[in-house]
Write a structure and sequence with these properties.
By secondary structure, the chain is of the alpha+beta class. Helix content is 44%, strand content 23%. Among the domains are: 66 residues, no CATH class; 123 residues, no CATH class.
Length: 585
């Protein structure tokens, strides 16, 4: 039988599921009552059956812990969710939802009606700009996961994102920490980096994890993924740098170096993210680091990160401030505590309010919530009807009098409701006037971020330093408009009086419908880097390249090898109709 005082937490990882039962202590703390976990097939070749495996694993955990028919709060891995930190200008509270929805439509790389999304304001009130975390997941993918969870008789209460659940657990256990810290969560497929600095938080997912190491071992020894995983678990450790002697077994020694090389790649990404956090997010470099996740149990990994980061490094213990029931398996909890951060974070959602409270429940769950909220009103209305019928039957002989009285009441209510209807129409008119007034502000926010986001998108798709952009020029209807935008500072065409007279009669704004990109590519890299850049741009939401011929928009100069250090290329990038930018001549 379900315990009404307990709450169930579930963490759905890419290769591991874990479940725990929590309850509140009399002092308002968190008590861990039960815990268990289940491994999924590690081989990426089994990804097609991942949802089915998840359903089977959840059902097994439900039976082991005896939590059938209870509500569950579960977290999904960060790699399956789109997330982005967005800065907003100072806004009044009533306008935040409107602007954030606009930002979501601009940033989420899917049609907004095909995703479930949520946001959280982060940072402190003293910040000049408001920092907002946007998260979104395709509705179809979320429904598949939710069906796998609820098939085992559980009821969905909350759906969170694993890195943010981990953040709640960290804040709960290190509430007194004032210095800048980095939490490195190394999972199976990805590594989540969490920067915590007071009320400030920043997160990034890096596609390097335990399975990356396993794949490298499988490739080096020409064995299957499953065999490589078995070898890694049995004998894997991080090779020590410097003058340390290799392991006596050449195979184990080679494997330890493969692990070190992969972790060195991860360290490089951490250094890049440190610099981004400091320069773009206004944060301070971390002064302490914490490790957690399923892949941090390899020997010498703590020594590796201490050496590379040149910081104090320790394992994050999410059970530091959590009481553990006497019946719990203390030995197992000691071995797996570093993998329980997301569970503790979800458990805290059932205890009280948390610093991060995202909720990505599917539409079916949202509708069920709304129905549950209306049930008391339905019951009250039903009881009222029954009471009225009983009274009418008991006082049947006074029916005609009651009918007249009710008619008078209805008439009065009709008049009252008529007044409300007039007021509602007045408010609707006021709302339309407000919408007209706020439209320029919405346009301003769009214009403020569009070019920065576009330039950032272009830069992210360059790939490497083999090519670079030398100039970008906006075009409208096949003509450059640089001089129109910047008062003649560009080298664009001159307008004659006839053109100006014609423009005065226009009622619609001119639109920037494409940009002309000029650049150089290194001769030793070859022209293929330009064509690869073009193909990557096809995935950008800013440009419409899938329906155009490459030769129509791309020109690449090239000649005999060794003749020049670099060659030029020219690329026209048309905008979709929905993102063409208006401007005044």
């Amino acid at each position: 039988m379900a315990d009404p005082k307990s709450f169930v937490a579930l963490n759905i990882g890419s290769q591991r599921l874990s479940m725990a039962v929590f309850s509140a202590t009399p002092e308002g703390g968190l008590l861990l009552k039960k815990y268990d976990s289940s491994e999924l097939l590690a081989d990426p070749a089994a990804d097609a059956s991942r949802v089915q495996q998840t359903g089977v694993a959840v059902n097994e955990l439900v039976e082991k812990l005896g939590v059938a028919k209870q509500s569950v709060r579960y977290s999904i891995s960060g790699q399956s969710v789109f997330s982005r930190f967005v800065k907003l200008p100072p806004l009044t509270e009533e306008k935040v939802d409107q602007i954030v929805e606009f930002e979501a439509q601009q940033n989420v790389p899917f049609p907004i009606n095909e995703v479930v999304w949520d946001y959280q304001l982060v940072g402190s009130e003293e910040d000049i700009e408001m920092e907002t975390l946007l998260v979104a997941i395709k509705s179809d993918a979320l429904n598949e996961i939710n069906d796998a969870v609820t098939a085992s008789s559980l009821r969905t209460a909350t759906v969170d994102v694993a890195p943010m659940a981990l953040y709640n657990a960290f804040r709960y256990n290190h509430s007194a920490l004032t210095q800048s810290a980095i939490l490195i969560d190394i999972g199976a497929r990805t590594t989540n980096l969490l920067y915590i600095e007071g009320a400030k938080v920043f997160a990034r997912s890096i596609p390097v994890g335990g399975s990356t190491i396993t794949s490298a071992i499988a490739k080096e020894f020409d064995i299957s993924f499953a065999e490589a995983e078995e070898k890694k678990v049995a004998n894997g450790f991080v090779a020590l740098g410097g003058a340390y002697a290799d392991h006596d077994d050449p195979e184990i020694a080679a494997m330890s170096k493969i692990i070190r090389n992969t972790l060195t790649r991860l360290h490089s990404e951490i250094v890049r993210t440190n610099n981004f956090y400091r320069s773009q997010q206004g944060g301070n470099l971390p002064t302490v680091a914490y490790l957690c996740g399923a892949s941090v149990s390899m020997p010498y990994i703590l020594d590796f990160f201490t050496e590379k980061l040149n910081l104090p490094v320790e394992f994050f213990n999410p059970l530091k401030n959590v009481l553990v029931d006497a019946d719990a398996d203390a030995e197992r909890l000691g071995k797996e505590a570093h993998m329980m951060g997301e569970l503790v974070g979800m458990g805290l959602r059932g205890l009280s309010s948390c610093p991060m409270e995202l909720d990505l429940v599917p539409e079916t769950v949202q509708k069920a919530r709304e129905l549950d909220a209306r049930k008391p009103f339905f019951v009250t209305a039903g009881l009222g009807v029954l009471a009225l019928m009983a009274a009418a039957g008991f006082h049947f002989h006074r029916g005609s009098v009651l009918a007249e009285e009710q008619s008078a009441v209805v008439g009065a209510d009709t008049a009252t409701l008529g007044n409300f209807d007039d007021q509602i129409k007045d408010w609707e008119n006021i709302q339309k006037q407000v919408d007209v007034k706020t439209e320029p502000f919405t346009d301003a926010v769009f214009g403020r971020i569009f070019w920065l986001s576009l330039f950032k998108d272009l830069n992210s798709r360059l790939g490497n330093d083999s090519l670079w952009i030398t100039s970008l020029e906006p075009y409208s209807q096949g003509k450059p408009v640089t001089s129109e935008l910047f008062g003649g500072l560009g080298t664009s065409f001159e307008r004659d009086e006839e053109d100006e007279d014609e423009d005065k009669g226009k009622k619609e704004k001119d639109l920037i419908d494409e940009i002309l990109v000029k650049g150089l590519y290194r001769e030793d890299a070859g022209s293929d880097v330009v064509y690869a850049f073009f193909n990557r741009l096809k995935d950008s939401r800013y440009f419409e390249l899938n329906e155009v011929e490459q030769s129509d928009v791309l020109q690449v100069d090239q000649g005999a090898r060794g003749e020049r250090w670099a060659w030029t290329f020219t690329l026209r990038l048309p905008f979709p109709e929905t993102t063409r930018i208006p401007f005044k001549r």
